[in-house]
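hey so i finally got around to running the thing on that chain from the lab meeting. sorry it took forever, my laptop kept dying and i had to restart like 3 times. anyway pasting the input first so we r on the same page abt which one it is
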Amino acid sequence: MNAGIQGGAGPDASPQHRGQLLRVLGVGFGIAIVVGGAIGSGILASPGLIAGRLNDPILIITVWLMGGLYALLGANVQAELSTALPRAGGLYVYARRAYGDYAGFALGWGDWLQYTISQAAILALFAEYAAALVPAFGGHVGAIAVATVLGFAVLHSTGVRAGSAAQQVTSALKVLALIGFVVACFWFGDQAAARAAPTSAAPPSSWPVLLLAMLVSMQMVMQTYSGWNSAIYFAEEDVNPGRNLPRALFGGVLVVIGVYVLVNLAYLHVLPLDAFGTSRLPAADAMQAVFGGRGGQIVTLLAALSLLGILNGGLMNAPRILFSLGRDGWFSARVQTVNAGGTPVVALLITATLMLALTLGGTFEKLFLLAAFFGVLFDATIATSLFVLRRREPALPRPFKAFAYPFAPLLYALIAVALFAGFLINDLTGSLIPMAVVAASYPIYRLVRKRQRAASL
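ok and heres what got predicted. didnt touch it at all, straight out
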C-alpha cells in the first residue's frame, strides 16, 4: 500500500458531505509535503548572500545547521500541538486554543495571506523560468501563470489523493535533481576547484560584527527553511496523526537539512570563497564552472522543478486554513464545501484566484515583507502556546510529547523571539506596515464577532 495515501480507515475514508475531509493521508505524504514546502529556489540563490556575510566555510555550514536545528526544535513543539489538536488549519488551531478567538482570527487570516502572497511570488518565478527554458513561451509569462494555476486547480479538484500523489512525485524529483547537482559538482568539479583562485575573503573581525552577521544570516536561512511544518495542515486527513505527523515533521526536516548542507558543500567545493560570497546565483556559477555554457539552463531547470512542489503544496495548505476559518465562523460557511474527493473546492477557488490576481498584478512584491513579518511573528506565538496549553489543559490527550520539555521548547521560543526582535531591528521602518495590518485586524475581528452574535439571536 502506498505510504502516502492509505485507505480502509473506516467511515472517514468514504465520500464526505459538506464540512468534512477525507482521512486518507499517511506518513509518505507528510514527508513529501514538508520537503516540497521547504526546498525551493532559495537554496539556489540565498547561499551566496550568506557566504558574503560570513566569509568562512565553517561559519557558512554552521549557520545552515543552526537553521536546521531551529526547524527541528519547531518540529518538536508542533508535533505535540498537531497530535493533541489534529484539526485542519494548522497554526490557527493552536493559537485560538491557547490565546482565544482574537489570536486565532488574526493568526489564521495572516497565515492564509502569508501562504497566498508567497505562492504568488513563487508562481511568478516559475512562469519566468518556464519561459526561459522554452523559447516558444517567451513573452507569455502571464499565460504560463494562468495555465499553471488552472492545471493545479483541476488536479486538486479531482481529490486529495491526486494532490498527494503529485506532491510525492514533485518532491522526489526535486530531491533527486539537487542530489544530482551535488554529485555533478563533486564528480566533475574537481578541475574547476583546482583552477579556482586563492581567496582573500575573511570572516567578521569582531564578536559584535560576527553576531550581527550570524543573526542576519539566520534570518535568510530560516526563509529558506520556511514550509518545514507543512504536514500539520493535514492533521485532520491523516489516518494516524499521532504516529505519522511526528515522523513526517522530523523525517522531512532531516531530509531538508541534509540537502541544504550538501548543496552548500558543493558550492564551496567548486567556487572560490570570494566568488561564492559575491554571487547572486551560486548554483548557476557552479554549473558554469562545471559544464560551461550549459550551466545556466541546467540551473533554470532545477529552479523550475523546485518550485513545482511548493506550488502544489501551497495550493493544498492554504485552502485548509480558509476551510477551518469558515468552519469556526470567521468566513462564509461556503468555504466548508468539500467534494467527494476530499478537496475543499470553494476554499481552493478563492485561494487560487487571489494568488493569480497578485501574480498578474505584480502586487505580491509590495506584500512580500508582510508575509515575512507574519512568519517570524507566528513562530514566536506558536512557540509559547505549547506552554500555555500544558499548564491550562494538562489532561489533553497528547499522543506525542515534546522532547526535553521545558528546555527544548523554551530554546525554540527564545530563538523565535530573538529572530522577531532581529526582524524589527534590521528593518524597523519596513515593519511599520505589517504592524499596522496586525493592529487593524482587531476592529475587523470585533465587527465579525458582532455579526456572529447578531446571527445567533
